[in-house]
Amino acid sequence: MSANIIQLIQRHIVPPLSNSFHKGEAGRIAVLGGCEEYTGAPFYASESSLRSGCDLSFVFCTKDASVPIKSYSPEIIVYPFLYDGEEGSSDETEKLVSRSVSKIQEIFPRLHSLIIGPGMGRNRNVLQVASQVIQKAKEKEVPLVIDGDGLYLVSQNPSLIKGYKHTVLLPNPVEYKRIYESVFPDKANSDDESKDADTKMLEQLCNELGNVTIVKKGSVDLISNGKLTLKCEEEGSLRRSGGQGDVLSGITGTFVHWAHWSQERSKKNKEDQKDKNTQPKGLEDSIVYACYAACTLTRKCAKEAFKKSYRSTTAPDLIAQLPHVLQDTFPYQITEQVEE
Fold this sequence. Notes:
This protein has helices at 2-12, 40-51, 63-72, 90-105, 124-139, 149-156, 173-183, 195-208, 244-268, 270-274, 282-309, 315-329; strands at residues 28-32, 56-62, 76-82, 113-116, 144-146, 167-169, 213-216, 221-224, 229-232. By secondary structure, the chain is α/β, with parallel strands linked by helices. Strands 3-2-1-4-5-6-7-8-9 form a nine-stranded mixed sheet, sandwiched between helices. Helix 11 (282-309) crosses helix 12 (315-329). It is globular.
């Protein structure tokens, strides 16, 4: 089963390499996150996006976080646009929040997907900016990957993403429980803990949220949009290092763009149109397969990193494995021409 899924992803989602592509076409991925306390998470997410094959990576962070993140890598484009200032008058704060949102929104035309949450923190003003950015992204149909403190925001207001099918949520068990209880307060204390019940509850949550895609992380990653559900049972690491979720969010950001891009390419590719029976059924299913790919790569990287670093494994060890794991899992294909 897993081999068939990997083949499907390789054939229909992972783009070939070509001299006809221009820089940025394979992905311009942004992360909204990073504050004085947390600077590693947005870096791990951005670096993982780059290492998994996107062309350009951006970070929207607070001013205090910008210099540390810039110092981690010259590859990442850093914008200190997140407003986290002290509370002033309500009118003044509203203006500063609005200015922050406007600056971020100006970059939207350059973006293929936006990851919200890694290292974002829970500063009241930052959460307000993030909430408004989500609304603006929906208006512009920018694909969203939400993790970390972005999931806290969703748990407080699920309507933020309800019905927006270009959304991927990446909750761990605690974050998932918080979102589920927010959406279904009367069903939060179910005694049925079977695997079938777990799948049914996840599909129910996806459907209630308007068929967004949710990756419920755990010993087995359960991925669903309410209509299509996949399980990623790839072996991972014996050590669960901090930052592994950020690596997953970064890879997901790239692959979600590729899912969208593949839909556009298939419309132009005559061979793809002949092969409709073996390809994902539309964009929504492509996003689920993209998430499966991201989960698989993250777990494989964790496994390979553990072989080298054992108990000392950290997120940079996972990222260092990405080039080899990516090539082993999805060997690159070369095409000389891509139809316009």
